[in-house]
Amino acid sequence: MIVWVNGTFGAGKTSVCRELVELLPGSLLYDPELVGLGLARMLPPDRAAGLADFQDLPSWRRLVPEVAAALLGEVPGPLVVPMTVLREDYRDEIFGGLASRGLAVHHFVLDAAETILRARIEGHDAHPGEPERSAGTRDLRLEHLARYRAARRWLSRDAELVDTGGLTARQTAERLAVLVGEGAARCPIVQSADATGDTVAAAVLFFDEQDRVLLVDPVYKPAWEFPGGVVERGEAPTDAALRETDEELGLQLDAGDLRLLAVDWEPRTGPRRGGLRLVYDGGRLDAKARQRLRLPAEELRAWRFVTLEEAAALLTPGRHRRLAAALDARRRGELRYLEAGRPAAEGPAPHGLAAHGLTPDGLTADSLAGAVDAA
Asked: Per the confidence metrics, is the pTM higher than 0.85?
């Protein structure tokens, strides 16, 4: 279990977490800042010199869940984590990584009036002999308050806010210990297995009257996604598309409601799994159908209809290429085969469906089924 204590400078995270460790038997203080400091020391000098915030390192966001899981293999836990995270996409990536490892996350934000936070920051002990550094540190922490104000809106939806204005560190820790016991701050994030092999996944595209496409915002990853998910063992891809549409959106469709638009072979990149990605056309959702949309809180945060241009800011580059190709196939009434979101090169290819003896021109329903079974 993870007890994540968030908040801006001056909120008292470190002091509260030290007290909280004494109140939760078996707990251990885990500071992800140490992971960032270690990375900064190992990075090439030119990369480290240009680094304003180690949280911007993808390696840091991947390592934080890894180190947490490793620590919980050594101690009974929970891990008490004093760490400010003000970007929602970073929160999704880190907490999603924790959830995929089966680690429950209790998310707290230590909150106080800005006048109190300013007073605490301005009264922070100076570094002996380093007045310039102390002044610079205070200025940075004061500037940080604006970021916290902007993030507080999503933090108030995601976490349990605890007003620390009139509490000591011990009193705040006692309050958190009670809330942990009650489970009041546990984030409802889907806990999917972190598979090691490539997968087959099915996505369904829905459209509104302006032909904008529906995207959903997962709580366990930073970018937006298409409705859909991984095909389970022994499950047909079309059945998976129907199941995921029901589970994620509350829409019950028949196989006849779907039309396959594109098949994309996605390469594995770093820790991200690869495999075959099937994209279906689910048709239009009118106003009445949109009112019936129901999202699972542990998996999806929001939905919206977007143009292809708007989708570029929400999807990863590979998924945006896949969407563009699928939309083009829909307009032309074709079935498109892709690799990494791009049309496959002419002739044999060493990866994807071509590895099964298929070419884009020779793609049929029967050959596709054989390739999916082989994958």
From this structure: no
**Does 249 lie in the same domain as 295?**
yes
Buried b / exposed e over 100-138, threshold 16 CB at 10 Å, is bbebbbbbbbbbbeeebbbebbeeeeeeeeeeeeeeebb
Q: Is residue 297 part of a domain?
A: yes
Let me know whether 40 and 121 are in one domain: yes
Which distant-in-sequence residues (6+ apart) come within 8 Å of 29 by Cβ?
A: 17, 18, 21, 79, 80, 82
Q: Which residues contact 239 (CB under 8 A, 6 or more apart)?
A: 255
Judge whether 284 and 206 are in contact, CB under 8 Å: yes
* 3-class secondary structure, 254: coil
Q: Which tokens hold the place of 79?
A: 């891990």
According to DSSP, the β-strands at 342-343 and 336-339 are antiparallel
The domain in which residue 76 lies consists of 2-182
pLDDT along the chain (375 residues), means of 10: 90 92 95 92 79 87 95 93 94 92 93 78 50 57 82 91 90 95 86 66 96 94 92 92 94 93 86 85 94 91 95 94 96 93 61 44 46 43
